[in-house]
Every structure is written in C-alpha cells, then in structure tokens.
Design a protein that fits this description.
The complex is a heterodimer. Chain A is of the alpha+beta class. Chain A contains four helices and nine strands, in the order E-H-E-E-H-E-E-H-E-E-H-E-E. In chain A, strands 2-3-1-4 form a four-stranded antiparallel β-sheet, with helices on one face. A four-stranded antiparallel β-sheet of chain A has the order 6-7-5-8, covered by helices on one side. In chain A, strand 6 and strand 7 form a beta hairpin. The radius of gyration of chain A is 20 Å and the shape is globular. Chain A starts with a strand and ends with a strand. Chain B is α+β, with helices and mostly antiparallel strands. A five-stranded antiparallel β-sheet of chain B has the order 1-2-3-4-5. Chain B is globular. The chains are: A alpha+beta, B alpha+beta. The interface between A and B is medium-sized, with 15 and 27 residues.
Chain lengths: ~180, ~170
C-alpha cells in the first residue's frame, strides 16, 4: 500500500471528477479524504489516494494525462507518508474575517495565528460582492491549544483587523451531540 | 439500568424508517428506560432515538437540562410515535451525532416547533419547544425516518454566497 496526494485544477464543467477518479479505479486505488470545490470558475480537486503495491507516481501521472488532456487540467501526483500525522489537540473555534479586498489579509491574520501557536484545520476564502467593490471573506476553522486565552486572542485579532480595515469575529464551535 | 450499544454508521438500520410503537406497555416502557440510560451513559449526549440502539420503533428520549444553549426545557422527555405539528424559523448550527463518529455538520433546523406524541402512561403529550431543545427534537425525529444530520448538511458555500455587502 502506498499513499499519493493528487491535485487537479481546470475550468469547471461536468465530468471532471468522474474522469479523474476512473483512473484510480482502473489502478485498484481507493480514494480517501478529498476536497473539491469551484475556485473562481475553476474546479480544484485535492485527493488522498491509497494505491496497491507496485503502483508508482509515474504510472498514475501517465494515466492521468488522458483526462488532463480532455478536460484541460493541471495535474500533480506526489507520494506521501503512509503514517497519518496528528494535528494538535484543543478546542475548535471559527474565525470569520471580511472586508474590502486588499493584499495581505490572509498572510497577516494567519501569521498572528501561527505566532500564537494556533493550528488551522480548514480555511476558505472568497471574493464576493460587486466587481467594482470586491469584498474579501475568509473563514477559518482553528484549534486553540489547551489553556489558550481566547479573549486575548480576540483583542489581538481585532487590533490587527482594524489595522487592515476589515472586520473579524471569533467564536467557539460547539458541535452538540444529539 | 440497561445501557445498550449505540449503533454507528455504516450500520444500515440507521437508514430505515422506524415503525410505530404498537402499544404503550411494559415493553415500550423498558425501551424508554433503555433509551434514557444509554443517553445518560454517553458523555454530552442530550438525545437518543430507538433506531440508534437497533430498535426500529418510533420513540426517542431527550434532555437538554443545564445545556448552555437551551431556552425552553422540558427536562427528561420520552415520546412515542411523535409527530411534528409545526416548525418555524430555520437557523443553521453545528451538530454531531453519537451514531456518526468523527464528523460534525452545519444543519439548518427550525427554532420553534410543536410536537405531539404519547408519553409512558399512554397519554397524549403536546410539546412546544424552541431554540436548542427544538433542534434536539428535530434531530431525534429525523432518526425515526432514517435521516442523519449528514442528510441535511447546509453547504458552506451556500452560506458564503448569500452574503451581500452593499
């Protein structure tokens, strides 16, 4: 067994997922975690694939040239460690940042998170609003390490958001077990 | 006290539509006791439906007592053959389920509900609930129709795209 990380991006149209995953099926691979979404009209796929012994990066890449050509996709395949790395434990929080688009929002917010030892588990950004007045929206799921001071973090984030001219809100994600 | 094993995905019994409880007798009351005992045994679990312990009957237990998000609170409730009479005011919130380990999802549910069902003495009970208790009731009611929160997850994109700033 070997694990591969596969990414494929191309102008959105029906059939991309079916064409790409057909290759894995033909090679006896199993799809594990994946994330696929439309990013500004482009369909972007990220997949972790579990392949039987003997299947190589080169074989998968070669087999993917067919769907890549048909759908005009940029494809990359990389072998990854079979062990599952563990993410830091802690409380799940959600951060929303939004405001007039300008360079540096993602970098400066995430640098602040990194400086505070906060792990990002999911991040999406979208440019929304009217073309002449674009609004940047970023949603982050993050893990606050045990003992972290959420109030202090909120103050720091608010201070930085003011500096960037955007709004932000941080709240705990409490999934209720029903 | 009987704590029964909670069945989890991919057990297909979770996807079956449960049958009405034929009569509220000692067997039904034993089921109610098992539901409450099993619910109490799972940390942070505030509701459990009969299909989750492998019993394909229309019954569930909930108790939102002491939950920080609860507004209305009827304490420990067991309902047989519940029906939804009214649902109003949908809101999205994140849910997990003891039958769906490791996943949570944002689910849109009504915040004001009226349910009718039978209690353990075979008397009709009308429950008017709101907020978190309403969510819990709807989640358990879904289990009786073979629906999991995964069947109702609201798309994250949909939340984003609807935002309009002017």
């Amino acid at each position: 067994m070997a694990h591969f990380a596969v990414s494929a991006v191309g102008a959105d149209r029906p059939g991309i997922v079916a064409a790409v995953t057909a290759v894995f099926l033909e090679h006896g691979c199993n799809l594990e975690d994946s994330s696929m979404s439309i990013l500004r009209g482009h369909f972007a796929m990220m997949l972790l694939v579990n392949a039987p012994d003997g299947v190589t990066e080169e074989q998968l890449e070669a087999a993917l040239t067919d769907p890549a050509a048909r759908f005009d996709l940029v494809v990359a395949v990389r072998r990854i460690d079979d062990r599952v790395p563990t993410s830091p434990a802690g409380e799940q929080w959600n951060l929303a940042v939004y405001g007039a688009d300008r360079p540096g929002i993602v970098h400066r917010i995430t640098q602040l998170l990194a400086d505070n030892d906060i792990n990002i588990v999911d991040l999406t950004t979208h440019v929304i609003g009217e073309p002449d007045q674009p609004v940047y929206a970023m949603l982050v799921d993050l893990t606050l390490p045990p003992g972290a001071d959420a109030e202090l973090l909120t103050r720091r984030l608010t201070h930085l958001a003011d500096d960037l001219g955007v709004d932000c809100s941080l709240h705990r994600v409490e999934a209720d077990v029903l | 006290m009987t704590v029964r094993p909670v069945i989890q995905l991919p057990d297909h019994r979770l996807k079956e539509r449960a049958l009405p409880v034929p009569c509220i007798d000692e067997t039904a009351r034993q089921l109610a006791a098992d539901l409450v005992d099993t619910m109490r045994a799972s940390p942070a679990c505030i509701g459990l439906a009969a299909p989750q312990i492998g019993v394909s009957l229309r019954a569930f237990a909930i108790d939102v007592t002491g939950h920080p998000k609860a507004h209305s609170c009827h304490g420990e409730v067991v309902l047989f053959n519940p029906e939804l009479l009214l649902a109003h005011g949908p809101v999205v919130a994140r849910e997990g389920c003891v039958s769906v380990p490791h996943l949570t999802g944002d689910v849109r549910r009504a915040t004001e509900v009226v349910l009718r069902g039978l209690d353990q003495d075979d008397h009709e009970r009308i429950l008017t609930a709101d907020g978190f208790e309403a969510r819990a009731l709807l989640h358990e009611l879904d289990h009786l129709d073979g629906l999991l929160f995964l069947d109702r997850v609201a798309s994250q994109d949909a939340i984003f795209r609807r935002k309009v700033y002017r």
